[in-house]
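Sample 1 of the test manifest.
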Amino acid sequence: MSLDVDFTLTLPGFRLEVRFIGTGGVTALFGRSGTGKTTLANVLAGHIRPDRGHIRLGERVLVDIEAGIFVPPHRRRIATVFQDGRLLPHLNVRANLLYGAWFNRAVDRQKLAEIVGLLGLEALLRRYPRHLSGGEKQRVAIGRALLAAPSLLVLDEPLASLDAARKAEILPYLETLRDRLNLPMIYVSHALDEVIRLADTLVLLEAGKVRAAGPIGEVMSRLDLGPGAGRADSGAVLAAAVETIDAGYGLATLVFPGGRMRVPADGLATGQTLRLHIPARDVAIARDRPEGLSILNALPVTIAEMTAVDAGAVELRLSLGPSLLVSRVTRLSAETLGLAPGQDVYALIKSIALDRAGGLI
Amino acid sequence: MLTPVEATALELSLRIGVWAVAGSLPAALALAYLLARGRFPGKALLAAFVNLPLVLPPVVTGYVLLLLFGRHGPIGAWLESWFGIVVAFRWTGAAIAAAVMGLPLTVRAIQLSLEAIEPGLEQAAAGLGAPPWAVFLTVTLPLALPGVLAGAFLGFAKSLGEFGATITFVSNIPGETQTLPIAIYSLLQVPGSDPAVLRLVLLSVAVSLGGVLAAELVAHRLKRRLAG
């Protein structure tokens, strides 16, 4: 189900101009604090009315200001998980979970057992929100949103108020939801690692405007997206699968569209799919196939694009079959090596981040 | 034990208090909701109007009630011709006076508790499919309940102490409009009735203290249950 968003909203001292299309799966709204991410989530949920434009979810028109259409929040079937959980304090966990079922006959109460199992909530059902930890509250909030049978799930910085351990507790559940439920999700975040782990589509917001939008691998490898994405974090995002495991050396071979890579095997299993983040600063360039080098992954690539990022550094977009890598080298190196678009070179990958707990992040 | 006069005054005071609260609570809830959530021109004026009985001399409030609800007043005449109800110089009139005098206190208590509700909770409920009336019944009202009950008890306690507006509006009729404070006032006019006055005063203090204590207890319990 696609989400088609195109609206303008003027608030005192702030203007939000948003246009993007989410094509199912997880769409991440990514940007720094104060770029309008939460306002955008509120517009989607129907708590704020935009000045002009439309919001369509699949076949349904939720907002079309010009045509005088504005569906109120309770008829949108967009459930939101907020940063602060917002569980109803006077109801226990079970009643919170079933709250949406009071108003929606389509909600199958049998589904309660399924969601409770999926999110590990069995032991919490009779407790009241004030007796839950932050991580538990968020799991209940996610379950409550799912049990309202939404056609879109909005997660508004759901991990932002949790510490690292609680984040690590929730993230696998979010991955499970993404992989098991056929439910489009909007994931609002300013944490790049979460976005890389979860998102299929990335919408990059900057000062109330969409700076870039598209498949995450595509947007992350673009060279012109400076401060919004955070320079130090720019890099490639690849979907890969574990092909074989060499137990003797403790290495796994990963296959992705256009090539293969070897990484430490700890915790990986053959056939497992995962996502790789390869930061631009961790990719070096060699003109010839390198010899006598400890780096395991040297991939033959073609320079697709070169951009000077500042006086001393150059970023390269490297194509490898259908996949893209990004490399950041000094301008001196680029000139010494005589690098130019169209040239065939080798990408030397120093480190790889895997998108799973206990991986290489 | 209580003398028949004391028992009558006590029963009348309690009956008037209960009816004043029961009758004014829906209106107080609506007014508090308007003042807490509404955005409309004249909101400040409405707030001032609701609080007027708090600052007006009670005798003025009583006189205004007499003008409006008297048998020839616009509301009084209407009540009599349509429903055959007469409130002037009846205990029902005393209940109206008590309700009007207690309204500012009740509205204030409810309004404060409505304003303390995190708006995000109501938005979350709407996002889960709850229409506005359901949000009000399942989220707003339960969370405001400590304030509603505290307001009701305050209004009740206020009605037990109401004197000026009541005696102006419905006069001093034993068994009909002679509440505890009016009974005390009447006895004070009679020389040598000090022991009887003291008994009524103690009775009045006990009843009022009970009401205020009950309000505190209920509010405290509910707050603890709703916390966090």
